[in-house]
Amino acid sequence: MHVAVFGANGRTGRLIVAELARRGHAPLAITRRPVEVAGAVGHRVLDLADSAAVRAAAGSAAISALASSRGNRACSALAQALGPCAGLRLVTVAGAAVDAPGDRKPWPERRFGPMLARLVGEMILDRQREFAILTLAEAQWTMLRPPRLTNGGATRRPELSFDRPVSSRIARADLAVAAVDALFDEGLVRRAPFVAEARAGRRRSGAANADKALAPTGRSR
Length: 221
Ligand SMILES: NC(=O)c1ccc[n+]([C@@H]2O[C@H](COP(=O)([O-])OP(=O)(O)OC[C@H]3O[C@@H](n4cnc5c(N)ncnc54)[C@H](OP(=O)(O)O)[C@@H]3O)[C@@H](O)[C@H]2O)c1
Fold this sequence. Notes:
Layout: E1 2-6, H1 11-22, E2 26-31, E3 42-45, H2 51-58, E4 61-64, H3 74-82, E5 89-93, H4 107-119, H5 121-135, E6 140-144, E7 148-150, E8 158-161, E9 169-171, H6 172-183, E10 194-197
Parallel strand pairs: 1-2, 1-4, 2-3, 4-5, 5-6, 7-9
Antiparallel strand pairs: 8-10
Helix pairs in contact: 1-6, 2-3, 3-5, 4-5
The protein binds NADP nicotinamide-adenine-dinucleotide phosphate.
């Protein structure tokens, strides 16, 4: 299957491309500058402000590992461009700092979250903006919300949850596994699960194993 990967040269993006290739898919690397991405079957250099080109490149399946930063609204720009694409399956990698209805984050996060937002505020604000755009989008989206990312080896046991992350970190390699899994998990459409390193003794989980007691986010699935 052809899958466009936005931010394909980033640390997680490269692992997503490799994971897609490992599973026999055909990843198309999308970047803003010409770079080599191992495992990609094609490459496109795009400006996210060019919505028509972004939509054409996304096709029917896309994963975003873009990061926003000060003065850089990459994540909300992509959501804005791809939101109207009804036939698109889209998975975006965001962060646990994004708030969604139904969250029951533990008290340190509730307490330190606003402090974090002041420090890296624009980045989190842009992810929150992205989430708001997606909840109204036609595209079949899933937003993954990982906590702290590490460069450790893959456990291949990322665990999804809907009210709070099950642990405080996840390896980028496991996040890549979860992003590709999510692309093919119908149960995650229009939902924004947390994804974190699994607790000891727990099996890797998709929507089927996740807490279904909580209402899905956004419009009906
Ligand atoms: N670090 C953490 O602990 C943490 C925790 C939770 C969630 N996250 C989120 O997880 C995601 C992946 O993180 P990461 O550390 O793997 O990311 P990363 O290595 O920083 O890669 C970010 C990617 O976004 C691209 N990008 C940024 N602005 C762009 C723009 N305006 N147009 C096109 N491309 C743009 C970068 O391209 P260039 O190489 O050209 O700049 C790069 O490919 C990010 O969304 C991050 O915010 C991170």
